[in-house]
Amino acid sequence: MRLSQQLFVTLREEPADAEVRSHALMARAGFILKLGAGLYVYGPMMWRVLRKIEQIVREEHDRIGCQELLMPAVQPRELWDESGRWERYVNDGILFNFRDRKGSEVCLGPTHEEVITHFVRKQVQSWKQLPTTLYQIQTKFRDEIRPRFGLMRGREFIMKDAYSFDANEEGMKDSYAMMRQVYRNIFSRCGLRFTPVEADSGAIGGSGSEEFMVDAETGEDAIAVCHEIGYAANIEKAVSQISAPAGEPEKVEMHKEPTPGAKTCEDLLKLFPDLGVERLLKTVLYEAVWEDREQTIAVMCRGDRELNEVKLLNHLDALNLELADEKLVRSVTGAEPGFAGPIGLRDDVRLLADTSVEGVQGFLCGGNETDTHWLDVWFGRDLEQPETADFGVVQSGDTTVCGKGKIEITRGIEVGHIFQLGTKYSEAMDASFLDENQKKLPLWMGCYGIGVSRVAASAIEQNHDEGGMIWPLPIAPYQVLIVQMKAGAEEQDALCAELEKELEARGVDVLVDDRKKVNPGAKFKDADLIGIPLRIVVGRDAGERRVEWSPRSGGDKEVVTAEEALARVSAAVEAASSVRDSE
RNA sequence: CGGGGAGUGGCGCAGCCUGGUAGCGCACCUGCUUUGGGAGCAGGGAGUCGCAGGUUCAAAUCCUGUCUCCCCGACCA
């Protein structure tokens, strides 16, 4: 392919709205163009990258016998009413929904559990048809609350979603395990450094789930890891052990303390420096919403710990959880915000506590009275210890549950998520089969998603430098870039044409920068920016069939013969194609 | 949804406070020279200043509304 014949535009300056490197570089290089918040045109170069990723995804799925299909993006509401998810998705505001000309409600699919379940309930009747796994690669639509970071969180993005169907739980787990390995293979082949982590399954539901996190500081997700014992979990899901505060406090009678203006733990510590932050219990108020009701929830938590709203939401089995606003705080506590406590809350408030409060005695807590806290409060003596459960956020330095490791917090980009759904959808939508004994049983499902466009962005987040992107070879838009110093010079023209032809004959994707009237400096800058991993510079030594070998990822530039350059390309392509993950 | 910020040639920005009819760099077009790390000179094209109202002799500039985009937060009491 000749660059001179392509529409190829690069910018010298970055677009002002790009926050992360992948976004800035892809925009500068003309790989993407913003159409609106979270909406992007994938330019020709970008599309090549996406197709390469898709190809890897297809190969790895097909290898274990998955079948590709394609479902509609437009989905009728009725299907979503069957699974019970329409209300939730509409309430969350994430659904692009509208009415068609007949007035029927439809949405643009944010995910396809309903449609695939419908497809399978129509197609599958017998245990003999199981197990089966189907997948598609398609545009998904989600009206994200806050789209950001270019392709990282778009409102329209390319996703691979797969769904497995088994006759029983063991079968589902087998399918899940196979898919887990497929995912490892895919991300390894894409040249990503990643960590699989235990995850919360959120709106999709089901029993177990894992996310595949690309290691990156700019990632939106925090993950808790312990390398010694091999633990890794999304912070939403992560668990740890923490020790109770040391020392037995004096058994003083509970009493009120004036704490004017002291609304935060920090303020209170200044007033009671000897108390220790562990003996300061905060009480956080939430409004929980279920399908048929709502309730104010007060949750106690140790001063040095944070509350995990995902764990709380799951415990309550609520649809939504919101921090109480000031008005609600006043109504429930009778005090200004900042002085909420467990004693004397309005009767209808449900009081819970994080496990971090266990073993804490003689503590300080809010007085439910402006500028007042209770001090020397004891559970069992002054108030019953509320129902406790793990509502805490794991912190760096915590001990792992097994007691043998220390937890470290890192960040990652979620590029894949796999779920054991169980029979949640098959039961709700009556997707069943007949077993050997003519018994009607629900299908056991798994579902598996990969953000294809996000994989591309993550690859750049992980692989770039000052000059631009550095694509991993297997997903690079082209594998080789031949930079011709002076287009039109006879010897260079001839050698470039020869190299291009030979590489194409070997099945290598090659791009020749044969643009005229573009200076060498500009060509080098563009080459660095678009990040084609292998590069051959054809310049003044073309007559002697000598070229410069200068891989994008650095390393020493070297003058070699044309034949040697070809051999090096073949070797690099060969090496990259043999990458497989082995766990 | 709350808070903050921004919309001026394709891109990045200045001008706005203190109203007087739009400018810089890059990119683009033409010509000549140049050709191993974003070339030089000369000439040229391109913006109803997001949109709608209002104030004024006069609005990119002041006022009101509206749309869009970006950032922070959906935060600890």
Layout of strands and helices, then pairs:
Elements: H1 21-28, E1 32-36, E2 39-42, H2 44-63, E3 67-68, E4 74-76, H3 77-83, H4 86-91, E5 96-99, E6 105-108, H5 113-123, E7 132-141, E8 156-166, H6 169-189, E9 194-198, E10 209-215, E11 221-226, E12 231-234, E13 255-258, H7 265-271, E14 281-289, E15 294-302, H8 309-316, E16 320-323, H9 326-333, E17 350-354, E18 363-369, E19 372-377, E20 387-389, E21 408-422, H10 424-428, E22 432-434, E23 440-442, E24 444-451, H11 452-462, E25 464-465, E26 468-469, E27 480-484, H12 490-505, E28 510-513, H13 520-530, E29 534-538, E30 546-549, E31 558-561, H14 562-577
Parallel strand pairs: 3-7, 15-17, 17-20, 27-28, 27-29
Antiparallel strand pairs: 1-2, 4-6, 5-6, 7-8, 8-24, 9-10, 10-21, 11-12, 11-21, 13-19, 14-15, 14-16, 18-19, 21-24, 22-23, 25-26, 29-30, 30-31
The structure holds one RNA strand of 77 nucleotides.
List keywords for this structure.
YbaK protein; 583 residues; 27% helix; 3 domains; BirA Bifunctional Protein, domain 2; Rossmann fold; nine-stranded mixed sheet; five-stranded mixed sheet; RNA-binding; alpha+beta; 31 strands
CATH class of the largest domain: Alpha Beta
Q: Find the CATH superfamily of the largest domain.
A: Bira Bifunctional Protein, Domain 2
Q: Helix count?
A: 14
Q: Using only CA atoms, what is the Rg?
A: 29 Å
Give the overall pLDDT as a whole number.
Answer: 93
Q: What is the CA-CA span between the terminal residues? A: 38 Å
Which sheet architecture does the biggest sheet show? 9 strands, mixed
CATH architecture of the largest domain: 2-Layer Sandwich
Identify low-pLDDT runs: none
Report the CATH topology name of the largest domain.
BirA Bifunctional Protein, domain 2
Going by helix content, strand content and strand pairing, the class is alpha+beta
- How much of the sequence lies in strands comes to 25-35%
Number of strands: 31
Identify the overall geometry: globular
Secondary structure: helix percent: 25-40%
Domains, number: 3
